[in-house]
Design goal:
CATH class: Alpha Beta
Strand content: 25-35%
Order of helices and strands: EEEEHEEHEEHH
CATH topology: Nucleoside Triphosphate Pyrophosphohydrolase
Shape: globular
Radius of gyration: 15 Å
Helix content: 10-25%
Number of strands: 8
Distance between the termini: 43 Å
Structural class: alpha+beta
CATH architecture: Alpha-Beta Complex
Length: 163
Amino acid sequence: MSHPQEADTRPYREGVGIALLNRDDEVFVGQRIDQTAEAWQMPQGGIDPGEDPLQAALREMEEEIGVPRALAEVIAETRDWLTYDLPPELRDVVWKGRYRGQRQKWYLARFLGRDSDINIRTAHPEFKEWRWIPFRRLPDMIVPFKRPIYEQIVAEFADRVRS
């Protein structure tokens, strides 16, 4: 069990995320199925052994929202890995307490399909509903402890997005 005054020496979990833009440069967000709060996020998840970050991001997109890789054109990726720490009350619960937070590579992609190609009722659903929102509103939609990482994503990709 960690104590707030002690430095957490656990590693970061390796992860990825994808900001999927529609034709109007709005971004996909899904409301997490396991949250009672208004917690919205973009598709994201861990990297499997032997998988490179881009492969992982495209796999997560397909697993979480049913969009096949052929319907997403990758436009950009973050220059660096972005990190966030879990709040102290979650560190010993999430990922069985093995990680202090996540280290993520993020991708910006253009959605080439239609809304009907999105299916959140997947084999292992993560979202209970979804919507398109203006890209710059992303930090307002996420849980507070992930807000700084979403602010970094918006800042880094802002010159490529109109909304």
